[in-house]
Amino acid sequence: MTGPLGRVICDLTISADGYSAGLNQTEERPFGDDGGDGSGDRLHAWMFDTPDENRAEVDRLAAAGAFIMGRNMFGPVRGEWDRPWNGWWGDDPPFHAPVFVLTHHAREPQPMDGGTTYHFVTEGIASALARARAAAGDGDVLVHGGATTINQHLAAGLIDELRLHIVPLTLGAGTRLFDGVPPLKLEQVTSRPASLVTHVTYRVLP
Q: Where are the domains of the chain?
């Protein structure tokens, strides 16, 4: 899959029943009904409440030559670019590299502070991955989610490594990892429990 280039990695926080977000996502509640305030406070507490315990995993979230994310991961759940919007990530996003956003609606590239530039790709995952590989050179490409975008890449056989952060809560409904994905052969590479999460890395086998 990777040839001479870097790996294609996905990195995702999920509930124990496999959901990366609950139902009823909105601009104000990007993670929907997660049992908290919808901001992702319950799913992602491991990043913010115990950062030192999870420093290596947090640092790896931005350690790639280029990134791919779905439309909802970038910004609000809307069908059109109906107003100026810089996305969920603020004026200085944590990526500091090219980010390729999958969308059905074209938009000019959007430079941000700190070296991040969003590129909006309307031609699908193969085009986004080709552009991300070119931008990353021999570095890794990280598919940042959400689960629907990762599922598309998994179903197409494009992921080399799957990094999951499994949080001990259930959501019961929402956007779920592996939905619509054919059976996969996974090799466990690492597993590390922490107080609020278990970090598991799998290699996706051919």
A: 8-77+87-200
In this prediction, residue 2 carries a pLDDT of 44
- Write 131-136 long-range contacts (CB < 8 A, 24+): 131/66, 131/98, 131/100, 132/66, 132/67, 132/68, 132/98, 132/100, 133/5, 133/6, 133/66, 135/65, 135/66, 135/97, 135/98, 135/100, 136/5, 136/6, 136/64, 136/65, 136/66, 136/97, 136/98
User: What fold, for 8-77+87-200?
Assistant: Dihydrofolate Reductase, subunit A (3.40.430)
18-45: average pLDDT: 69
| DSSP reduced 3-state for 137 | coil
Checking 55-63 for CB contacts under 8 A at 24+ apart, the result is 57/163, 57/165, 57/199, 60/11, 60/163, 61/11, 61/94, 61/142, 61/144, 62/94, 62/95, 62/96, 62/97, 63/140, 63/142
Average pLDDT score over the chain: 87
Residue 100 has pLDDT above 60, yes or no: yes
pTM comes to 0.87
